[in-house]
Design a protein that fits this description.
two-stranded antiparallel sheet; about 25% strand
Length: about 240
Amino acid sequence: MVSTGEHPFTGLPGGVAVSRLCVYDWPAADGVRSGTPHVHLACSEGYVVTGGRGSVQTLTVSGYEVTPLAAGTVAWFTPGTVHRLVNEDDLRMTVLMQNSGLPEAGDAVLTLPPQYLTDPETYAAATAIPADAPEDERERVARARRDLALEGYRSLREASGPEALAAFHRAAAALVRPRVAEWRRRWRSGALAAAEATGRHLDRLAEGDTAHLAEAVVRAERPVERGRLGMCGRLDVYGTPL
């Protein structure tokens, strides 16, 4: 193989992350079986629904919406969208996450009541699932943090005007600010590197240079972890975050 001397991006197309999700079927206080409402501050998220039926509840400054989800639906939303997945009948999907590695590095803030959003330590104490605990205890903690996040979520939904949501956005941004430098490193080695590789390819093609085509590769992966207790449900996770 002839090398172009470049360091090509080797992640999934566009620097996205992929996981398979089975949405929690745990009933909440409102009788709805759902995941944990939360927001992303730097990443867009997409769903390719592969089975079952349900919906995603979203809350933005434009208001509250419910988007039905069924097999074949593709839905996505941008940063700042508070979202809650609802499982009506065995809802399953493939999740596409912008900026692979950022959600794992903290780009997800649960809609806890304000007193839990005051500092990173308080927030972590209310949300962390102990990795070395027995499965039933880890599940209990995941369910408890879901229910706590629903308390804050209900307050945001019931508030009149956009100020409550804006205050939550500010609190979430303050929580993650210490992590932004690390996020930038992940972004540079992920999504930005993928876009820059495309730019180099276009430059070569404009010059009639096809050397990069001789470096084509094929990759396939199996999940590196199955059934992880995530925010919205149980996840089968692919790859290693950048």
